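Training component of the fellowship. As part of building independent skills, the fellow (R.M.) carried out the full modelling exercise for a liganded target. The chosen ligand was iron/sulfur cluster. The inputs are recorded below so that the supervisory panel can assess the work.
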Amino acid sequence: MPSRKRQLPEIPPELVGTVHITPIDAIYNWARMRSLWPIFFGLACCAFEMIGAFGARFDPSRFGMEIMRASPRQADLMIVNGTVTKKMLPQVVRLYNQMPEPKYVMAMGACAISGGPFKEGYNVVSGVDKFLPVDVYVPGCPPRPEAILHGFLTIHAKMQRESIRNLRWYRKGEETEPVPVPELGPDLVDWRLTEQIEAMNPAENSAER
Ligand code: SF4
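Fellow's submitted model of the complex:
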């Protein structure tokens, strides 16, 4: 397989140590990595562990991450930190849609990953990844702050591999579709599944129309 490493121009010997040449992706990704701002909201007990992880002892400031934003418009990391109930999910999806691209999602704890101890409970979503594109899963009940920090570093590593040339949100003419906000009735309605649901009972659906 050919090497994907790009050749950088040579630096004249008299400028070595004074001039550094690096791809724009490296600077761009470094700047994004060191200013990843999480949205400040909590869903359940995992939220307290997340708050603990943001204290001085574990110090996310060293990654430029200490500013938790109260507005989704200023945040680019969503930490889904606890049990996602069916009643709460539309709000979580709405917040995600309001965050600007490029954005990332961390599923923190067993509940956010799979429903945890409440899996298949009548009011609990069995994993937030059924609705949002999760980038990193941090298991535990709750995960320790060290695990959360490891989750941050994993997202940083993911960002480091991205390139400004092929990220979806920089391509002209390719709009990022928002995730349709599910509707809570007797159960959740996921609007992305409308066609599949209609196909399961075509006779009834055509009669309704
Ligand atoms: S994973 Fe455990 S600690 Fe976290 S929200 Fe669920 S029950 Fe609470």
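The panel noted the following from the submitted structure. The longest strand covers residues 77-81. The pocket of iron/sulfur cluster is lined by residues 44-46, 82-83, 109-111, 116-117, 141-142 (CB under 6 Å).
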